[in-house]
Amino acid sequence: MSHAIGRRNFFRCLAGGAAIMAAPQLSLAQEEKIGKKTYTYKKIDTCEIKADVYQFPRQGAQPVVVWIHGGALIMGNRGQVDRTLLNKLAKAGFTVVSIDYRLAPETKLPAILEDVEDACKWVYDKGPELFRIDPKKIAIMGGSAGGYLTLTTGFRVHPAPKALVSFYGYGDIAGPWYSRPDPFYSRMPAVPKEEAYQAVGRSVITESSSKNNRHRFYLYCRQQGLWPKEVAGHDPDKDPRAFDAFCPVRNVSAKYPPTLLVHGTKDTDVPYEQSKTMAEELARKGVQHDLITVPEAGHGLAGAKPAKVADIHDRVLAFLNQWLN
Q1: What does the alpha-carbon distance between residue 291 and residue 245 come to, in Å, rounded to a whole number?
Q2: For the structural domain made of 3-324, what CATH number should be given?
Q3: d(CA 11, CA 14)
Q4: pLDDT, tens digit, for every residue of 253-290?
Q5: pTM of the predicted structure, to 2 decimals
Protein backbone atom coordinates (compact mmCIF):
# COMPACT_ATOMS: atom_id res chain seq x y z
CA MET A 1 0.00 0.00 0.00
CA SER A 2 1.42 3.37 -0.98
CA HIS A 3 1.51 6.20 1.54
CA ALA A 4 -1.01 8.19 -0.53
CA ILE A 5 -3.49 5.31 -0.77
CA GLY A 6 -3.08 4.48 2.90
CA ARG A 7 -3.69 8.10 3.84
CA ARG A 8 -6.86 8.26 1.74
CA ASN A 9 -8.19 5.06 3.29
CA PHE A 10 -7.31 6.33 6.74
CA PHE A 11 -9.28 9.55 6.30
CA ARG A 12 -12.14 7.54 4.82
CA CYS A 13 -12.22 5.43 7.97
CA LEU A 14 -12.31 8.53 10.15
CA ALA A 15 -15.09 10.14 8.14
CA GLY A 16 -17.00 6.87 8.19
CA GLY A 17 -17.77 7.41 11.85
CA ALA A 18 -19.93 10.37 10.97
CA ALA A 19 -21.72 9.49 7.75
CA ILE A 20 -22.55 6.60 5.45
CA MET A 21 -19.86 7.07 2.83
CA ALA A 22 -21.72 5.72 -0.19
CA ALA A 23 -24.79 7.91 0.32
CA PRO A 24 -25.20 10.97 -1.91
CA GLN A 25 -25.37 14.29 -0.07
CA LEU A 26 -28.29 16.70 -0.10
CA SER A 27 -28.14 19.86 -2.12
CA LEU A 28 -28.13 23.10 -0.14
CA ALA A 29 -31.66 23.85 -1.35
CA GLN A 30 -32.96 20.52 -0.05
CA GLU A 31 -31.16 20.87 3.27
CA GLU A 32 -32.56 24.34 3.89
CA LYS A 33 -36.07 22.91 4.03
CA ILE A 34 -35.19 21.29 7.35
CA GLY A 35 -35.23 23.70 10.28
CA LYS A 36 -32.16 23.65 12.54
CA LYS A 37 -31.73 25.17 15.99
CA THR A 38 -28.68 24.93 18.23
CA TYR A 39 -28.96 24.54 22.00
CA THR A 40 -26.50 24.20 24.88
CA TYR A 41 -27.61 21.09 26.74
CA LYS A 42 -24.83 21.15 29.34
CA LYS A 43 -22.12 23.44 30.67
CA ILE A 44 -18.97 22.43 32.53
CA ASP A 45 -17.18 25.51 33.85
CA THR A 46 -16.77 27.57 30.67
CA CYS A 47 -17.23 24.61 28.30
CA GLU A 48 -20.61 24.63 26.56
CA ILE A 49 -21.74 21.28 25.13
CA LYS A 50 -24.21 21.73 22.30
CA ALA A 51 -26.86 19.95 20.29
CA ASP A 52 -28.38 20.70 16.89
CA VAL A 53 -32.10 19.98 16.48
CA TYR A 54 -33.37 19.26 12.97
CA GLN A 55 -37.05 19.00 12.05
CA PHE A 56 -39.70 19.88 9.52
CA PRO A 57 -42.50 22.03 11.01
CA ARG A 58 -45.38 19.73 11.94
CA GLN A 59 -48.35 19.68 14.25
CA GLY A 60 -48.14 17.53 17.35
CA ALA A 61 -45.28 15.89 19.23
CA GLN A 62 -42.77 14.01 17.08
CA PRO A 63 -40.69 10.92 17.81
CA VAL A 64 -37.00 11.76 18.11
CA VAL A 65 -33.70 10.25 17.03
CA VAL A 66 -30.61 11.30 18.99
CA TRP A 67 -27.61 11.11 16.62
CA ILE A 68 -24.11 10.56 18.10
CA HIS A 69 -21.15 11.30 15.83
CA GLY A 70 -18.10 9.10 15.46
CA GLY A 71 -14.37 9.83 15.52
CA ALA A 72 -12.98 7.30 18.02
CA LEU A 73 -14.14 9.62 20.86
CA ILE A 74 -11.09 11.72 19.92
CA MET A 75 -12.37 13.65 16.90
CA GLY A 76 -15.53 14.94 15.27
CA ASN A 77 -18.48 17.19 15.97
CA ARG A 78 -22.27 17.31 15.91
CA GLY A 79 -22.30 18.62 12.34
CA GLN A 80 -21.19 15.24 11.02
CA VAL A 81 -24.59 13.82 10.21
CA ASP A 82 -25.45 11.67 7.20
CA ARG A 83 -27.52 14.30 5.36
CA THR A 84 -29.36 11.82 3.17
CA LEU A 85 -30.50 9.79 6.16
CA LEU A 86 -31.28 12.99 8.05
CA ASN A 87 -33.58 14.12 5.25
CA LYS A 88 -35.37 10.77 5.18
CA LEU A 89 -35.84 10.78 8.95
CA ALA A 90 -37.22 14.34 8.94
CA LYS A 91 -39.60 13.60 6.05
CA ALA A 92 -40.81 10.52 7.93
CA GLY A 93 -41.77 12.71 10.88
CA PHE A 94 -38.77 12.29 13.16
CA THR A 95 -36.98 15.10 14.95
CA VAL A 96 -33.19 14.54 14.86
CA VAL A 97 -31.00 15.80 17.70
CA SER A 98 -27.26 15.65 16.92
CA ILE A 99 -25.10 16.03 20.01
CA ASP A 100 -21.55 17.00 20.88
CA TYR A 101 -19.69 15.49 23.82
CA ARG A 102 -16.32 16.15 25.39
CA LEU A 103 -13.50 14.49 23.48
CA ALA A 104 -10.65 12.25 24.64
CA PRO A 105 -7.90 12.14 25.75
CA GLU A 106 -8.42 15.46 27.55
CA THR A 107 -11.67 14.03 28.90
CA LYS A 108 -11.76 10.38 29.86
CA LEU A 109 -14.48 7.90 29.01
CA PRO A 110 -16.53 8.07 32.25
CA ALA A 111 -17.16 11.80 31.72
CA ILE A 112 -17.88 11.27 28.00
CA LEU A 113 -20.52 8.71 28.92
CA GLU A 114 -21.97 11.16 31.43
CA ASP A 115 -22.31 13.73 28.63
CA VAL A 116 -24.25 11.25 26.50
CA GLU A 117 -26.48 10.34 29.44
CA ASP A 118 -27.08 14.03 30.21
CA ALA A 119 -27.90 14.72 26.57
CA CYS A 120 -30.52 11.98 26.57
CA LYS A 121 -31.95 13.28 29.85
CA TRP A 122 -32.08 16.80 28.37
CA VAL A 123 -33.99 15.55 25.33
CA TYR A 124 -36.37 13.64 27.60
CA ASP A 125 -36.94 16.51 30.06
CA LYS A 126 -36.66 19.62 27.86
CA GLY A 127 -37.46 18.32 24.39
CA PRO A 128 -41.25 18.42 24.74
CA GLU A 129 -41.13 22.13 25.62
CA LEU A 130 -38.26 23.30 23.42
CA PHE A 131 -38.95 21.42 20.20
CA ARG A 132 -42.16 19.44 20.64
CA ILE A 133 -41.02 15.84 20.80
CA ASP A 134 -42.71 12.88 22.42
CA PRO A 135 -40.43 11.80 25.32
CA LYS A 136 -41.90 8.30 25.17
CA LYS A 137 -40.56 7.85 21.63
CA ILE A 138 -36.79 8.30 21.76
CA ALA A 139 -34.30 6.30 19.68
CA ILE A 140 -30.51 6.58 19.72
CA MET A 141 -28.39 6.24 16.57
CA GLY A 142 -24.73 6.69 15.70
CA GLY A 143 -21.79 5.56 13.59
CA SER A 144 -18.48 3.99 14.63
CA ALA A 145 -17.61 5.46 18.06
CA GLY A 146 -21.10 7.00 17.90
CA GLY A 147 -22.39 3.47 17.40
CA TYR A 148 -20.47 2.39 20.48
CA LEU A 149 -21.94 5.25 22.51
CA THR A 150 -25.37 4.36 21.14
CA LEU A 151 -24.98 0.83 22.48
CA THR A 152 -23.95 2.14 25.91
CA THR A 153 -27.27 3.99 26.21
CA GLY A 154 -29.01 0.63 26.19
CA PHE A 155 -27.86 -0.02 29.76
CA ARG A 156 -26.80 3.40 31.05
CA VAL A 157 -29.73 5.69 30.14
CA HIS A 158 -32.94 5.69 32.16
CA PRO A 159 -35.66 5.57 31.07
CA ALA A 160 -34.19 3.38 28.37
CA PRO A 161 -34.50 4.43 24.72
CA LYS A 162 -37.17 2.65 22.70
CA ALA A 163 -34.69 1.56 20.02
CA LEU A 164 -31.00 1.66 19.12
CA VAL A 165 -29.32 1.78 15.69
CA SER A 166 -25.55 1.21 15.55
CA PHE A 167 -23.74 1.74 12.27
CA TYR A 168 -20.40 -0.15 12.35
CA GLY A 169 -20.16 0.31 16.12
CA TYR A 170 -18.63 -1.89 18.79
CA GLY A 171 -19.61 -3.54 22.03
CA ASP A 172 -16.14 -4.23 23.43
CA ILE A 173 -13.43 -1.60 23.94
CA ALA A 174 -10.92 -3.73 25.85
CA GLY A 175 -10.28 -6.52 23.34
CA PRO A 176 -7.11 -7.07 21.29
CA TRP A 177 -8.54 -5.21 18.31
CA TYR A 178 -8.21 -1.96 20.32
CA SER A 179 -5.60 -2.84 22.97
CA ARG A 180 -2.92 -4.22 20.63
CA PRO A 181 -1.11 -2.67 17.64
CA ASP A 182 -3.52 -2.80 14.72
CA PRO A 183 -2.24 -4.64 11.61
CA PHE A 184 -4.00 -2.30 9.16
CA TYR A 185 -2.83 0.96 10.73
CA SER A 186 0.62 -0.44 11.43
CA ARG A 187 1.21 -0.65 7.67
CA MET A 188 1.05 3.16 7.54
CA PRO A 189 4.11 5.30 8.33
CA ALA A 190 4.63 5.35 12.08
CA VAL A 191 3.49 8.47 13.93
CA PRO A 192 6.21 9.73 16.29
CA LYS A 193 5.11 9.91 19.93
CA GLU A 194 6.00 13.59 20.22
CA GLU A 195 3.91 14.51 17.17
CA ALA A 196 0.96 12.49 18.45
CA TYR A 197 0.81 14.21 21.82
CA GLN A 198 1.35 17.65 20.33
CA ALA A 199 -2.03 17.26 18.61
CA VAL A 200 -3.97 16.91 21.87
CA GLY A 201 -3.94 17.89 25.51
CA ARG A 202 -4.23 21.65 25.46
CA SER A 203 -7.74 22.06 26.87
CA VAL A 204 -11.11 20.35 27.15
CA ILE A 205 -12.88 20.43 23.78
CA THR A 206 -16.21 19.25 22.40
CA GLU A 207 -15.64 19.78 18.66
CA SER A 208 -12.80 19.13 16.26
CA SER A 209 -12.14 19.13 12.54
CA SER A 210 -9.49 17.66 10.24
CA LYS A 211 -7.46 20.86 10.70
CA ASN A 212 -6.76 19.96 14.33
CA ASN A 213 -4.48 17.00 13.42
CA ARG A 214 -6.09 14.94 16.18
CA HIS A 215 -6.23 12.09 13.67
CA ARG A 216 -2.47 11.75 14.16
CA PHE A 217 -3.01 10.99 17.83
CA TYR A 218 -5.66 8.42 16.91
CA LEU A 219 -3.35 6.77 14.38
CA TYR A 220 -0.57 6.65 16.99
CA CYS A 221 -2.94 4.99 19.48
CA ARG A 222 -3.95 2.33 16.94
CA GLN A 223 -0.36 1.67 15.93
CA GLN A 224 0.68 1.29 19.58
CA GLY A 225 -2.46 -0.41 20.93
CA LEU A 226 -2.99 2.44 23.40
CA TRP A 227 -6.59 3.49 22.72
CA PRO A 228 -8.15 1.92 25.87
CA LYS A 229 -5.47 3.45 28.12
CA GLU A 230 -5.65 6.92 26.58
CA VAL A 231 -9.44 7.11 26.29
CA ALA A 232 -10.70 5.08 29.25
CA GLY A 233 -7.77 5.78 31.55
CA HIS A 234 -7.29 2.10 32.41
CA ASP A 235 -5.03 -0.69 31.18
CA PRO A 236 -7.17 -3.68 30.11
CA ASP A 237 -4.27 -6.05 30.84
CA LYS A 238 -3.71 -4.82 34.39
CA ASP A 239 -7.29 -3.91 35.29
CA PRO A 240 -9.71 -5.80 33.01
CA ARG A 241 -12.69 -5.45 35.37
CA ALA A 242 -12.47 -1.66 35.10
CA PHE A 243 -13.99 -2.03 31.63
CA ASP A 244 -17.12 -3.85 32.80
CA ALA A 245 -19.09 -0.61 33.04
CA PHE A 246 -17.87 0.57 29.64
CA CYS A 247 -18.54 -2.44 27.40
CA PRO A 248 -22.09 -2.91 26.06
CA VAL A 249 -21.48 -6.58 25.27
CA ARG A 250 -20.90 -7.20 28.99
CA ASN A 251 -24.11 -5.45 30.00
CA VAL A 252 -26.84 -6.91 27.82
CA SER A 253 -29.92 -8.03 29.72
CA ALA A 254 -33.45 -8.99 28.79
CA LYS A 255 -34.42 -5.33 29.35
CA TYR A 256 -31.99 -4.06 26.69
CA PRO A 257 -33.77 -2.04 23.95
CA PRO A 258 -34.48 -3.45 20.47
CA THR A 259 -31.30 -2.98 18.48
CA LEU A 260 -30.39 -2.74 14.79
CA LEU A 261 -26.73 -3.29 13.86
CA VAL A 262 -25.22 -2.38 10.46
CA HIS A 263 -21.68 -3.42 9.51
CA GLY A 264 -19.49 -4.13 6.48
CA THR A 265 -17.49 -7.37 6.34
CA LYS A 266 -14.32 -5.63 5.13
CA ASP A 267 -14.20 -2.92 7.81
CA THR A 268 -10.52 -2.23 8.58
CA ASP A 269 -11.21 0.22 11.43
CA VAL A 270 -13.88 -1.57 13.48
CA PRO A 271 -13.94 -5.32 12.84
CA TYR A 272 -17.22 -6.77 11.57
CA GLU A 273 -16.96 -9.29 14.41
CA GLN A 274 -17.78 -6.50 16.86
CA SER A 275 -21.35 -6.25 15.57
CA LYS A 276 -21.59 -10.02 15.06
CA THR A 277 -20.57 -10.69 18.67
CA MET A 278 -23.00 -8.05 19.92
CA ALA A 279 -25.80 -9.68 17.91
CA GLU A 280 -24.96 -13.07 19.41
CA GLU A 281 -25.15 -11.66 22.93
CA LEU A 282 -28.47 -9.95 22.18
CA ALA A 283 -29.80 -13.28 20.91
CA ARG A 284 -28.63 -15.08 24.06
CA LYS A 285 -30.53 -12.60 26.23
CA GLY A 286 -33.67 -12.72 24.08
CA VAL A 287 -33.44 -9.09 22.92
CA GLN A 288 -35.21 -8.08 19.71
CA HIS A 289 -32.48 -7.26 17.20
CA ASP A 290 -31.28 -7.49 13.64
CA LEU A 291 -27.81 -7.43 12.05
CA ILE A 292 -27.53 -6.02 8.54
CA THR A 293 -24.36 -7.49 7.08
CA VAL A 294 -22.95 -5.58 4.11
CA PRO A 295 -20.62 -7.90 2.15
CA GLU A 296 -17.27 -6.43 1.06
CA ALA A 297 -18.07 -2.97 2.52
CA GLY A 298 -15.45 -1.10 4.50
CA HIS A 299 -15.75 1.35 7.36
CA GLY A 300 -18.51 3.88 6.81
CA LEU A 301 -19.92 1.30 4.35
CA ALA A 302 -17.23 2.38 1.89
CA GLY A 303 -17.65 0.46 -1.34
CA ALA A 304 -21.36 -0.29 -0.83
CA LYS A 305 -23.51 0.49 -3.85
CA PRO A 306 -25.96 3.42 -3.55
CA ALA A 307 -28.90 1.05 -4.00
CA LYS A 308 -27.68 -1.03 -1.06
CA VAL A 309 -27.31 2.06 1.12
CA ALA A 310 -30.82 3.21 0.16
CA ASP A 311 -32.14 -0.22 1.15
CA ILE A 312 -30.37 0.07 4.52
CA HIS A 313 -31.99 3.47 5.06
CA ASP A 314 -35.39 1.93 4.33
CA ARG A 315 -34.75 -0.84 6.83
CA VAL A 316 -33.65 1.68 9.46
CA LEU A 317 -36.88 3.65 8.98
CA ALA A 318 -38.97 0.48 9.15
CA PHE A 319 -37.16 -0.53 12.35
CA LEU A 320 -37.78 2.87 13.96
CA ASN A 321 -41.43 2.90 12.93
CA GLN A 322 -41.84 -0.58 14.38
CA TRP A 323 -40.60 0.41 17.82
CA LEU A 324 -41.44 4.13 18.06
CA ASN A 325 -44.74 4.38 16.19
Answers
A1: 24
A2: 3.40.50.1820
A3: 5
A4: 999 999 999 999 999 999 999 999 999 999 999 999 99
A5: 0.92
